[in-house]
Structures are given as C-alpha cells and as structure tokens.
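Ligand-bound model needed. iron/sulfur cluster.
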Amino acid sequence: MEIRLHGRGGQGGVTCAKILASAYARLGKSVQTFGDYASERSGAPIRAYTRVSDGEITNRNKVYHPDHLLVLHPSLLGADVIQRLANGGMLVVNSPTAISHEGSIFAPFHLATVDATAIARRHGIGTRSVVIVNTTIAGAYAKLLEMDLKLLEQVYLDLGFSSNFAAAKEAYEQVKLSPAIVDSIDSAPSKSQKRVVSPSTLEEPGVRPLVEHTDGAHTGLKTGTWRTQTPVYVQNLAPCNAWCPAGNDAIEFVQVAGRDGAEAAAQILGATTPFAGTCGRVCPAPCMEGCNRVELDGAVNIRGLERWIADRAPVAMVHKKHQDHPKRIAIVGGGPAGLSAAYFLASQGHRPEIYEGEAELGGVLRTGIPTYRLPREVLDQEIQGILNLGVKVHCGEFFSKAKLQELVQNFDGVILSTGLQWLRPLVIPGSDLTGIEQGIHYLHKLNMGQTADAQLSGTVVVLGGGNTAMDCARSALRNGAEKVIVAYRRTEQEMPAIREEIHAAHEEGIEFHFLRQPVGFFGESGVSGIQLAECDLGEPDESGRRRPVVSERVQKLECNHVLLALGQGSELSIFPTGWELNEERIHDGSIPINAWGSGDFATGDGTVTHAIGSGRRVAGLVLKELGEDVEVFERPPRENAVPASVVRMDHFDRSEPSFDRSIAVAERFETSPEVNQGLADASEADRCFSCGHCTNCDTCLVFCPEGIIRRQPEGTGLETCPVHQQADYGYSYDIDLTYCKGCGICVTECPRGAIEMKAR
Ligand code: SF4
Ligand code: SF4
Ligand code: SF4
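Prediction:
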C-alpha cells in the first residue's frame, strides 16, 4: 500500500509520513518512508511518501500511484495532486469546511475532511502563523483506517510527540467522511481496483525501474552551474594490497575467488608470486592486519583464501615472454627471494641460473619450516612451476669469494639472496654446555632427514618469541620432548610470531614463561637447567614495544635441552674485499657493479612474503639496469590506502570471519600431518568490503537526490572508473553534470570510497 502526502514546508508533512509508517510498523508491516524536497523554505509545496507491505519492500521510487492521499493544506488540493490516486482511494484533506463530493473530480474517492489547522492551533502546535498539522492529521487518518487509538498513542510516545497526542485524538474523533459514500465503505481500498483516468491534463513522467533508466525527467533548470566540486569515480588503493609485502593484488584475488573460482584467481596471483600455496600457509599475513574489516567484525581471511585458491589451481605464470637476446642472470641462493627473482626473470624471457648450497632448492622454506606447517609436496610443486619456465639450477655448491667474482664477470647480472645466515648467539655462563643448540640448526637437522639426531627427551626450553621459536617448540613436542617451555623476555602481546602459531602452541600444551630473560645455564656433562631472570617492562624501544628491564629476581628451571631462537641477521662475510651493499645494489668501493642483494640478505625483513616481493623487485632492477623496458615493483605507501573511516560500515551486515580448519590436537603427533586444513570454501570472499574499488552496487545512483547518476552501457563512460573494465560488469556510471549541484551525497553514501569530490 502506498501513501502520498502533500503539504507545505513547515507543516511537518515528512514527519506525518513517518508517524504513519511507525504505526504500520507496530502492526508488524514492512514500511518505507521518505520526503521529496530539497532546500524548500517554509510554505513551499513538498511531498512525502510511505509504503507499507506484508513482505520486503524493494521499490525505492517515489509514490506515483497512491492508495491513500493526505493533503495537509487545502490550497494544494487540485487535479494535479489527486492524479493517479487509486479508484476508491482514501483522500484526507485538512480543510475547515466539508468539500463538495458528488459530481466533482473527487467522486471516485473516499473523501474525508478534518480541520487539522484549527485543532492544532487550539493545542498550541506550531506558531500562530505556521501551524504544524502533521500530528493532528495523522490522528484523522488513523480513525479512517480503523487503527486502535492506543496504538497511535504508543507511536507518539515512541517518537517523542506525546504532548501532541491530545490534538491527534481530537482529529480522530472529528474527522468526517463525505456523506455520499459513508455507507459504501466496507474495506480499505486496494490497487486491484480499477483506477480512474486522471482528471489532470498533466503528463506523467515515463518512470522506469530505478536502476535501468537512461533518460531522466529533469527540470529545465541547469543546477550544475551551482557546483563548486565534481564527483569523480576513482579506484583507490585497498589496504590489503598496500600491506602485502609480495605486492599481491589481494583485493582482486579475493573477489575473483568468490565470484569466478580458483582458476581465475590463480592467474591473478601468478602475476605477482610463484608461492601462493606456501604463503597461504606460512605468511604472517600483514594484509589481514591492514584489512579494514578488522574495524567491524574481524579481518577477511585473505591468507586462507590464497591457500584455497592455490590448493585447487596451482599458480603459474601463464604467459612467458620471448626475448631475442635473453640476459643471463646468476642467482646465488635458492630460497624464496632467489626463486622469486628467477620466476620473474624467466617469465620475461631471460635466462636465470640458480646456485644453491643445499642439495635441494627452497632455502628456509625447506630447511626451516616444519612439514606440519608446509608439506613438501606443496613446496616442490611450486618450485617445479618456477623451473618449468626454463630456470637452470646448480645445487650442492656453496660459494667462495673467488667464485662470486667469477659470476660477476661471466653473467650479465648477479643476484645474491643467501638469506639470514648469521644467528644471534647467547653469551652467558654455561652457554657452551652440550644440549644447548641454535633452533635453526635443530630445524635444519629435522627437515633435512637427520631425524635420529633431532630426537629430544625430557624438558626442552625454547628461548625466543618469533616463528622460529614456535617451530622449534612444536617440533620438539613431535620429536620426543615430554614437556616444552617457551621463555620470552616480553609478554605474549609483543611476540612477533604469527598469532595462529602461538594459539596452536597453547593448544598443544606448550608452556609459556613470559617476562623471562636467560642469565645462565647449569649442568655437569650437559645442560641440566637454566636460570631465568624476571623482567619488568620499561619505556618503549625503537620498535615501539616496551623494553624489558632485567630484575634481580632469578628462577631456576630444570631442563634437558635448550633451543635458541633469538634472531638472525645477514652474513656479509661472503663478500670479496671492497664489496659493499648499498641498499639493494652491490658496490666495489664506490663503483656499482652488476650485482644486487635481494631478500633477507639485503633487507633483513625476515618473512617469506617480504623475500618474494624483494626477489621480484630486484629482478626488475637488474633488467632495468640492463636496458630492458620493465616495471620495477615498488611497495605502495600504506598511508595511501583507503582508511577504515572512509568505509561506510553501516552498509554491511556483520558476519564472523571463516577461520581455517585444524585437525584435532590428539591427531597431530603420530605422523605429524599438516595441522591447518584450510578453508572449506571461498564464501569468506563475500566479506570483503572492496575498499576503494567500485562494485557497481548502485548506492550512489540510488542516493543521488537529483536522480542524475545513470548506468551507462559499456564503452561509453568506462574511462572514469577503471574497475568496471576489469570486472566486466557491462556498464559503468554516468553523472549528468548539467544537473549535479556538487552536494557530495554520492560520495558520502558510497560504502567503499570509490567516488570522490574533486575541485571543479
Ligand atoms: S575489506 Fe577487502 S578490500 Fe578491504 S582491506 Fe579487507 S580484504 Fe582488502
Ligand atoms: S602473501 Fe601474505 S600478505 Fe600477501 S596477500 Fe598473501 S597472505 Fe596476505
Ligand atoms: S556507491 Fe557503489 S556503484 Fe557507486 S561508486 Fe561506490 S561502489 Fe561504485
């Protein structure tokens, strides 16, 4: 049922429509109500609308065919106002006198009059000159629709109009139906009744469904000349993209996974990384830290989706370029940075050769990360994808300085990506006792098949709070340790390890001793205990975390093994005399040579994902230096990303994130299977806000008060919004600037920051 109200500015017509909607809402109906006016002053004609339905209301048009019509000022009553009122429709007029009904243009309608102005004036509603009749005439309407007066009273209470209820009650009692038809009313009018032909000579505008119209019904007044700012469709940087160190197009692969499936999404990933299956398992996911959805109900599980894609459609470079004169690039170190560099060089048609000291490629992915986190089939498959592009490999060859100089002479370019070879030692009393070992060495033994040597027993203490510490602790539990204790000098909040890894360690029964600093070991033939000093948290250090201050309070802890996971650094002793690393470029003295550093070796960032981004970037730098026309990957500044404050959270339903599935704790130890089983499906992608990227949601179109945003068929306006081209929606948007006043409502209402106001 549709109700239209005609009033004059100041009479409260929009509020009256709201009162009617509230009354129907109390009766359990769906309602919609809104006004239709702009900057009208007091006295100017305005319209307001209320829709009532048993079901969902999806139509957001103005009411063109009302079932009921309320006229709040008698001077407005005319043929144009009653046009398209349903035959038998209710016409309620605020009038001091009865209106002639029979034989008039009002004959087809139920006509009722009430002197709402006099009643409202008596009750002091409004001023002497501007009487506010809304609450009064609503009372008359309620009577005609046989609403319970008590219900109306409750509505007035809810809306804060209790003091106006007496006037409404008076109108309820005084409203008069035209005598000619009083007897014929037995039910509410409905649209199924035949409509009368409008007595009006006015043409009805050709109204089309809201999202399909291409022709507006504008007035001749070209209000666009008032504008000082112009709305422009844009594509802004999504935080997930800004935060991914590998430079993955996270927003795109997330949405394509949800919309088009794994195969299509794998192609997007393949353009930036050869290691989606690996990162989908072991990346600390800074993209999720930056995700704007954190502000509503939890980050989109981007890492889980990346893995979901790679598990179903392994990523691979789809197109390999051809080069007539390919460049030969030597890469020293076959870890994630070196492999990533090789991937991009080979895909550009060049000839990378990897020199790796271990027997197999993979670097820390193979030697450092336990198989229960990264199954070797996954790693091997991704490495094979790189080699398939035509990468030559020399394994089992550690490097001398002379060999390095030879490479520089024999190749067009050399990339050094030997990772973090330096391990932070712990020099305290007793640290040379047997049973104390670097965690990295322990994981290397375990992962490279020396499992007998990696068997532990009794209590194992792991020192550190990063991912290596978690890997050591959880591996120790799988390899003979009866009890594992992690001692860390700060609190759990400051631990740099991935949150899920810390959670899994807790689940598996690992004990944590926070705010503890090792100050000595004791034992006879081997370590039998550790002395841990309690720490207090002091002022923040350069990392922003509060500095642990070691106290005199020392605790002794008995143990059988200690694994050190205190941090790593680059090992530059590989350099011949005179060589220096200057950012990513290697210099001999002050002269840059054709050698670059990449990954942890150059940056010390310490994550697989940073290493992938660095490998890609350095591959670009090398090619650029060699005169190739390539784009060098630059990480976009995070501050350029769409902030959460721009996202209109109220446009989105709350929904909890989908987390990766894990196998039960009891099943984790016997054969050490992969613990994380990933996401069951890609529905998590639906939670993405699409920050800064238009989704053709039509919100701007619907909210534009001028009705001048229109869908534009493909090929006519796409240049204003690049995302439309990518997503192949088949249409873009066009704003008719002749009538755009520059109010900016489209920008305010866009849920995702994909339209901006620019100075005219
Ligand atoms: S909501 Fe979507 S687009 Fe926005 S940051 Fe998160 S994943 Fe990226
Ligand atoms: S690689 Fe890591 S940071 Fe980048 S999108 Fe994947 S999970 Fe996010
Ligand atoms: S409101 Fe919707 S259609 Fe309009 S720019 Fe924003 S995302 Fe695109």
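Residues 56 and 704 are 22 Å apart (CA to CA).
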